[in-house]
């Protein structure tokens, strides 16, 4: 099946309107991002750890989860 091509703005509009966009995707060559965890070590100032602990307690999640979410949000911002 030959894929049809359209402008990115048209693709975005179709997606936003809930239309079927699969005919415009190359699913045979699609790649999944690696979600394999990789351990890193980082030192934070004491005040940051205290603030991270306050946030994690308020949200009922681990400090590590808060750090992951904060970093993920910032990376998404930067990639736009």
Helix percentage: 40-55%
CA-atom Rg in angstroms: 20 Å
Mean pLDDT over all positions: 89
Give the biggest sheet: none
Overall outline = elongated
User: What's the number of extended β-strand segments?
Assistant: 0
- Amino- and carboxy-terminal Cα gap: 32 Å
**Number of DSSP helices?**
3
Low-pLDDT runs: none
Q: In terms of structural class, how would the helical and strand content be classed?
A: mainly alpha
Instruction: Please provide the ordered H/E string of secondary-structure elements.
Output: HHH
Share of β-strand residues: under 5%
Give an overview of the whole structure:
By secondary structure, this protein is mainly α. Helices cover 50% and strands 0% of the residues. It contains 3 helices and no strands. Helix 2 packs across helix 3. The two termini are 32 Å apart. The mean pLDDT is 89.
């Amino acid at each position: 099946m030959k894929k049809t091509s359209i402008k990115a703005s048209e693709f975005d509009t179709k997606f936003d309107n809930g239309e079927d966009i699969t005919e415009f995707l190359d699913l045979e060559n699609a790649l999944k991002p690696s979600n394999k965890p990789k351990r890193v070590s980082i030192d934070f100032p004491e005040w940051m750890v205290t603030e991270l602990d306050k946030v994690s307690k308020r949200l009922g999640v681990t400090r590590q989860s808060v750090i992951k979410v904060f970093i993920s949000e910032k990376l998404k911002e930067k990639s736009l």
